[in-house]
Specification:
It contains nine helices and seven strands. It is α/β, with parallel strands linked by helices and 197 residues long. β3 and β4 form a beta hairpin.
């Protein structure tokens, strides 16, 4: 089994690309979706998050906006949150691998792949990328997003140019969707043929 790490900074179109891999029949582990489940109603990490960050949860699980305010820009708080969430995500990842043990290729959709050292757990990395002005415009369309919040998130992420330089594949999303899909299909073909870069 080949493990492909799929990453990209905020607003780069990574979710769209992950869906394209899934549409091609490749099992995709979506780290963000797992975090949402773990932090949702009756999620496994809700009690631990409430204990560490009082007032950040309710009957619907973690209030992401409140928790975001509690940790954004505070490295110690962010590390404490990651210490709660990352091990639980790791357990879900192990279950995913067991479920898809016969698959020749799986994709791990991990937004903070380089930031967390996750690239060491995959065989190759594909970075989803777009021009900075497109990234900013897409991100600012999100509910509750502001220039200041976007800049704070970017400051915590490895710069796009660095990600592209370290990647085995770069998948552009500032092109027509069909072109992005063609890139995805080429990546799958290369991996199945045992090629990289």
């Amino acid at each position: 089994m080949l493990k492909l790490g799929l990453t990209g900074s905020i607003g780069m179109g990574k979710s769209t690309v992950a869906k394209m891999f899934a549409d091609e029949g490749v099992p995709v582990f979506d780290a963000d979706a797992e975090v949402h489940k773990l932090q949702g109603p009756a999620g496994r990490v809700v009690a631990a998050i409430e204990a560490r960050f009082p007032g950040t949860t309710n009957e619907n699980g973690v209030d992401r906006a409140t928790l975001g305010q509690a940790v954004l820009g505070d490295d110690a708080a962010m590390k404490a949150l990651e210490a709660i969430v990352h091990p639980a995500v790791g357990e879900e990842r192990a279950k995913f691998l067991a479920q898809h043990a016969a698959a020749p290729l799986v994709v791990f959709d991990i937004p903070l792949l380089y930031e967390t050292g996750g690239q060491r757990a995959v065989d190759m990395v594909a970075v989803v990328s777009a021009a900075p002005e497109i990234q900013r415009a897409r991100t600012l369309q999100r509910p509750g997003m502001s220039d200041a919040k976007f800049d704070a998130i970017l400051a915590r992420q490895v710069p796009d140019a660095d990600k592209r330089a370290r990647a085995d594949f770069v998948i552009p999303t500032d092109v027509p969707l069909d072109e992005t899909r063609a890139h995805v299909r080429r990546v799958i073909a290369c991996l199945k043929a045992g090629e990289g870069r």
